[in-house]
Amino acid sequence: MALQATAISDLPFVGDEDLLRRMLLNLLQNAVQHTRPRGTVEVMLEETLSAAVITVSDQGPGVPEADRDRIFARFFQLDAARRRSGAGLGLPISRWIAEAHGGQLELQASSPSGSTFAVTLPK
């Protein structure tokens, strides 16, 4: 598996460093866990006029349409075969951290070739 990161050179942001680190690590762990062997996880940091936007994309099987609202619920695990490798709290905690910083976390896109999660944090 490969990790590809793209970021602007400098983006000042005021927030809780430990919580933001936990949020990003949760998203990366989720992406790595669901990416196919020899796949790529992509992380991107961009700046808009009003926000910092972090996207994390995997090359996994995608999230079925019926489960897209439930993936942010505590203890929900999409893949029954992976139930031993986590408690189903990574995405809910990450969403809470984004919201605690006045932002949001959403499933931006999902298909059988992968999913992209986007965190938008106001500047």
Structure description:
The protein is α+β, with helices and mostly antiparallel strands. The chain has one domain: Heat Shock Protein 90, CATH 3.30.565. Helix content is 24%, strand content 31%. The protein has two helices and five strands; from the N terminus they run E-H-E-E-H-E-E. It has helices at residues 17-34, 90-100; strands spanning 2-7, 40-47, 51-57, 104-111, 114-122. Strands 1-2-3-5-4 form a five-stranded mixed sheet. Strand 1, helix 1 (17-34) and strand 2 (40-47) form a beta-alpha-beta unit. Helix 1 (17-34) packs antiparallel against helix 2. The radius of gyration is 14 Å and the shape is globular. The chain starts with a strand and ends with a strand.
Brief digest:
The chain has helices at 17-34, 90-100, and strands at residues 2-7, 40-47, 51-57, 104-111, 114-122.
